[in-house]
Amino acid sequence: MRTSRKWLSQYMDISDLSIQEIADKITAAGFEVEGIEYASAGTNLTIGYVETCEMHPDSDHLHCTTVNVGDEVLNIVCGAPNVAAGQKVIVALNGAKLPGGEIKKGVIRGQESNGMICSLLELGVDPKALSDAQKAGIEVLPEDAPVGHKDPRAYLGLDDEILEIGLTPNRNDCLSQFNLALEIGAILNKEVKIPDYAGAANVGGATTLKISSETEKCPQFIGKVVQNVTIKESPKWMKECLAASGMKSINNVVDISNIVMLETGQPMHFYDIDAIPNMEITVKDGFNEKYTALDGIEYQLLPEDIIITNSGKPIGIGGIMGGDDSKILETTRGLILESASFSHVQIRNTSRRLSLATEASVHYQKGIEPTAAQKAIDRAIQLLVEYADATGIEETVKYGDNGYTPVTISCTADAINFRLGTDFSKEEVISVFERLHFEPTVDGDTIVCHMPAHRTDMEGVHDLSEEVIRMIGYDRLPSTLPYMEMTEGKLNPTQRATRLTRDFFTSQGLQDCITYTLISSEKMENAILGVKDPIQLATPMSEERRYIRTSILPSLLDVVSYNHARSIKDCNVFELSDVSGTEGSKQHLAFVLSGTLQRSRWTGYTLPSDFYTAKGLIEALMDKLGIAAQRIAYRENTSDTVHFHPYRSAEILIGKQLVGYVGQIHPQYGQDTDCKNVIMAEIDMNALIGIKKSKIKFVPSSKYPSVTRDLAFVIDRDLPVAKIIDAMNKQGRVNKEMIIKNIEVFDVYQGEHVKENEKSVALTLTFQSDTHTLKDDEINTVFENIRAALEKNFNAQLRG
Fold first, then answer.
1. For the residues of 27-62, what is the DSSP string, one character each?
2. Residue 315, Cβ neighbours under 10 Å: how many?
3. CA dist., res. 561 & res. 676, Å (int)
4. Distances in whole angstroms, Cα of residue 187 to Cα of each of 15, 21, 433, 459, 477
5. CA triplet 514, 519, 521: central angle to 5 degrees?
6. Burial class of residue 480, CB neighbours in 10 A (0-12, 13-18, 19+)
7. Closest by alpha carbon to 125, among 149, 152, 94?
8. First CA to last CA across the chain, in angstroms?
9. Residue 512 to residue 494: CA distance in whole angstroms
10. CB–CB of 201/396 below 8 Å?
11. CA-CA distances (angstroms) from residue 74 to 41, 52, 334?
């Protein structure tokens, strides 16, 4: 919304405030001033008279002029094509500062120049407000312009200061300059005097005008005939106000229709009386044809559009633009005035479809106060009589009504203070309501406010409270500390586990991924470790986004497939996200390994992305989460052999609880997903977080030396090595002290010199005591016990 100092000065005295002070106060009251513009700019200007004008002797486009500026005659070189002797012009004297720079004396191609003859464009006037002729040359002033006048900007009315105000959505009433002036007057605590135009249209003789509406989208229509008007130039104040709003002046009648819309917020339309000889206007919808509007462009009308008609033919698009065949011309002798209420929803739809956004359509879309139509008719008649010599005014014709019901809201000062947390006196509260023209009446402690018709946003005590604090100032709110319990700012167990997991996997070289939560039916059916009862969207955007996922791996495999297709073979990714079903959500961890996880070409080190690497990542993560290695078990995967290779995958258990799967992808599923031979895992993080963790114990490092021994056994090929290690640990005590500190598998051999159903396993055992230096006989005793136990339990044979 645009307004200006001159416009506001018509209604209140603001001479004691700078434009910046006004802007600051308006912003503090809740209406942000988005910018301050100036109609023009320039210092050290004057009005001059061009006495002589000759072509420059050394140029084909420059002119040498002598210009009388009142107290002296200056030589000025001018490049404008329209400069001529006998003109009154704007002169920028030596030292003048213009938007384009400072003017200084100089010599132009050998000729002295002591200033500049200016165009309005050079003074910073908005190009949209200028004609092509004004843009192309200097501004030629009227013959009565006073030579030597030191403020040509004021003489032309270009000394205005313009405010661009951002209105909140609930304050569409301030699209009216009258209402905006009342609001600013309340903010500045200034007396506001709005022109008295009420009832100006309650005059006129009998009329033959007939108006009606055949659509519910137009509940109110007001028409009035003015038989005689004079088309002429608009008064200066009106042109200045239109310019401040970014509109061009056309003639007095068209300008009055525009200024009434800006003042009252109600769009109007003036029809040439000769274009509607039968004096009949009907609002209809249901048209499906092409129509040429006022801008000369042909538009396609649809049945839902609101159309103004005469004799069944369109003469305007309701609330948007009139027709080319009924517009105001220089020959117009009389008018038919239209002021109506239209459906703001339909106006918005039509305006958007036709890409036709006019000032009228913007006002209708944002909402108009219910009594604005009558106000607009009254103000238009007042201005037509004063500035267009209107005579032959006929009585007002109305269809429908505005449906307005006066609103009153009651409150007390205590209720407002309780809501705001303030201690305003009743007198202060009443003063605010008086400034806002709420016409408060007091009955004991109760204050009854009678809302003006334009304040359609006022609904209850909460709105009154907001008005009070806006007007008095938010700086009056007392400063208090919030009352709350002191809490320690820290992560909860789930957050700690989540952060630790992300940090661990990224530190190992995996990329953290975020894939789409919504998945297709196919991915839902291929859920791995999926939660039960998936949630299906009622209106999915596509078949690919029908379900909320119950498993992460199907989505993560898409990431790997995408990278493999672009020749990125070392693709190691993980995702830690929620999966959901009707019974609730869980947090899952999934990762996929392919190619090489870690590589150092300098040292020749590589860590392949294989099953053992995946197993190591899982065990290292669980160790960081506080789950001891002894509690982790791997079992042959028999529950999901559709997605995992049946002989190269395992179920992960903590105690007896299944918490996930790890292994190589099934060849068929790998082919379906274009992810061949990748290693993948999905783990229920909720289960890991919920498991009771072992307490951490600190013990001193042993100060006694350790001893290592290597063992190699031939055992059954199907026997898991973990069972061998468990059996060894059970035999590792001497005098109740566990002296086996570590068992490491360093070789598994199958082939020559070993039977087909057997394998050779080589291990390194580390022995160490915390109380003394171990003796050979102690180690040999444990060593012999291990050999005997393995031979007895597993028929293991010691290799020589």
1. HHTT-EEEEEEES---SSEEEEEEEEEEE-TT-SS-
2. 23
3. 9
4. 16, 12, 12, 21, 17
5. 155
6. exposed
7. 152
8. 97
9. 18
10. yes
11. 22, 11, 51
In this structure, how many other beta carbons lie within 10 angstroms of the beta carbon of residue 796?
22
User: Reduced to 3 states, what is the DSSP secondary structure of residue 684?
Assistant: strand
- The identity of residue 697, as a single letter, is K
Q: DSSP letter at 323?
A: B
The Cα-based distances of 507 to 395, 511, 583 in angstroms read 86, 9, 34
The H-or-E segment that residue 777 falls in is: helix 776-794
pLDDT at 755: 87
For residue 429, give the amino acid letter. Answer: V
Query: For residue 584, what are the β-bridge partners?
Result: 581
pLDDT at 800: 64
Could you identify the residue written with the tokens 């050394």? 58
How far is 732 from 586, CA to CA, in rounded Å? 41
The strand pairing partners of 660, in sequence order, are 652, 683
Q: In this structure, is the dihedral angle defined by the CA atoms of residues 267, 273, 276 and 279, taken in order, positive or negative?
A: positive
CA dist 585 and 660 (Å) reads 16
Residue type, 240: E
Q: At what angle do helices 252-264 and 372-387 cross, to 10 degrees?
A: 150
Block mean pLDDT (10 aa), the chain, length 800: 93 94 93 92 95 93 94 94 95 93 92 94 89 91 93 92 92 94 95 94 94 94 96 93 90 95 94 93 94 90 94 92 87 94 94 92 92 95 96 95 92 94 94 95 94 94 95 88 81 92 96 94 92 90 92 96 94 95 93 94 92 94 89 90 94 92 96 94 93 81 91 89 89 90 90 87 93 91 90 86
Report the distance separating Cα 652 and Cα 659, nearest Å.
6
CA nearest to 562, candidates 608, 522, 515: 515
User: The tokens of 317 are what?
Assistant: 């698009």
Residue 761 CB: number of other CB atoms within 10 A? Answer: 20
Q: Give ∠ CA 64-67-73 in degrees, rounded to 5.
A: 115
- Could you tell me if 599 and 607 are in contact, meaning their C-beta atoms sit under 8 angstroms apart? yes
Maximum Cα–Cα distance across the chain: 133
Please tell me whether residue 542 adopts helix, strand or coil conformation. Answer: coil
Query: Could you give the angle at which helices 252-264 and 359-366 cross, rounded to 10 degrees?
Result: 20
**Which residue matches tokens 């704007």?**
90
| Per-residue buried b or exposed e for 85-112, using 16+ beta carbons within 10 Å of the residue's own CB | eebbbbbbbeebebeeeebeeeebeebe
Contact (Cβ atoms closer than 8 angstroms) between residue 589 and residue 551: no
Mention every residue, 6+ apart, whose C-beta is less than 8 A from residue 250: none
Q: Write the single-letter amino acid at 209.
A: L
- Amino acid occupying residue 199: G
Helix axes 177-188, 426-435, angle to 10 degrees: 150
CA 302/CA 300 separation, integer angstroms: 7
What's the token pair of residue 100? 């384009």
> What pLDDT shows up at residue 478?
86
Give the tokens for residue 176. 């009216």
Going from the C-alpha of 406 to that of each of 376, 446, 449, 459, the distances in angstroms are 19, 19, 11, 12
- Helical (H) or strand (E) element with 556: helix 553-564
DSSP lists the bridge partners of residue 761 as 713, 748
- The Cα–Cα gap between 442 and 563 comes to 76
Cα distance between residue 712 and residue 110, in whole Å: 109
Instruction: Report the distance separating Cα 568 and Cα 565, nearest Å.
Output: 7
Q: Return the C-alpha torsion angle 435, 438, 444, 446, nearest 10.
A: -120
